[in-house]
């Protein structure tokens, strides 16, 4: 079975290489060969590919990559095949230790509280407070930052490591700019992000949650925002995994959204945004992020078909997670430029 899986992956890698998209969609094309526990969800496929790409980029070593893929349910043989297909199946010394970097953002786990003091919005960021609120399947946790006189309210959706201190600062930065913000912990049903001492286990736990649960929790977050900032227009912003969730929220039909900003997030299959026509969408992509960028034309087609106000932009010369100031791919100049554009977008469509 393992040899058959490797042959299947290699065949798909050859096809992808000829198309210039090697490693993009490989897991999705051969998902039934990878996880013996059952079919892989779209988000789990996305995370598996991300781990392989982070390894190929030298963010952590092969042993750590195999461990993370194993937590997702891949067998050792299938994980090795995926790493080979993504172009870096050597056990060379990584640029960071195996425990240092978390999949999804290139962010060292130990650096979650030590982002750049000069990151966009940090100079006026407000503190957040831990809150709980009612969700569809139990109590949800989150980080709340209240603007003194809110111009709008924003739902913040985290990367694939859960509600980290970095994401809390995003809520605080937005509040400092006048937008009361709630960063919802989508691991609440599993005890919350804080219950996971290993960020890779938090990622694996997120990968096992059904997509419909995420949508229901996000909708509960929108309701909570409306309670805490009555009368304010509501927006959503998310990064990486969270960027994909912004797309999912739009695809679910959320008429309460007035603005949405997905950063380099995977687009749901057959996305239809007809139920979210009120939202003005600023879609941010990283120029070097070929895997996520492959869905950019489809995203624009769906936005146009729904008759939405939108702007799709690719930031040249930067890679996936360029906005995360705790990560190896952070680009301060690009982050500052795009943050200014986000503020303009929210100013236009939230107030």
TrEMBL record:
Region (Disordered): 94-121
Superkingdom field: Bacteria
Domain Dienelactone hydrolase: 148-350
PANTHER family: ALPHA_BETA-HYDROLASES SUPERFAMILY PROTEIN, CARBOXYMETHYLENEBUTENOLIDASE-RELATED
Matching Pfam families: DLH
Gene3D superfamilies with a match to the protein in the record: alpha/beta hydrolase
Spans traversing the lipid bilayer: none
Protein name per Swiss-Prot or TrEMBL: Carboxymethylenebutenolidase
Organism: Williamsia phyllosphaerae
